[in-house]
Design brief:
The chain is of the alpha+beta class. It is built from three helices and seven strands.
Length: 107
């Protein structure tokens, strides 16, 4: 199972399913999210909406009420982390927030 080992203002370091160290770049996640929203909204995606999402700094979607709790980062494809407890997920979410980024509620 993948495990996040460190969260910095640049992104999240983790160990993948094969035991290799990996990195998720938060700026790339944010841009992937903005691009996805722009594509789904088409011509309704305004400069004001773009500015909102750039300022919001969303890098992933949290599923705190799921069993198991999970976090999906906006990588392509999504990088998914499952947690044993909601407290473990909460610790990662706090670290992401302290690093200056945010997650959306997936429920």
């Amino acid at each position: 199972m993948k495990q996040i080992t460190d969260v910095t203002p640049d992104g999240a370091h983790y160990i993948d399913d094969e035991g290799n160290e990996q990195f998720i770049d938060f700026a790339t996640c944010q841009q992937n999210n903005i691009d996805s929203i722009a594509e789904s909204m088409g011509s309704r995606f305004t400069n004001e909406r773009r500015a909102f999402y750039q300022q919001a700094k969303y890098v992933g979607r949290r599923y705190a009420l799921s069993d198991p709790p999970a976090l999906y980062f906006y990588t392509v494809p999504f990088t998914v982390f499952e947690f044993s407890t909601r407290n473990e997920l909460s610790e990662v979410l706090v670290a992401i927030k302290q690093a200056g980024w945010r997650t959306n509620d997936g429920e």
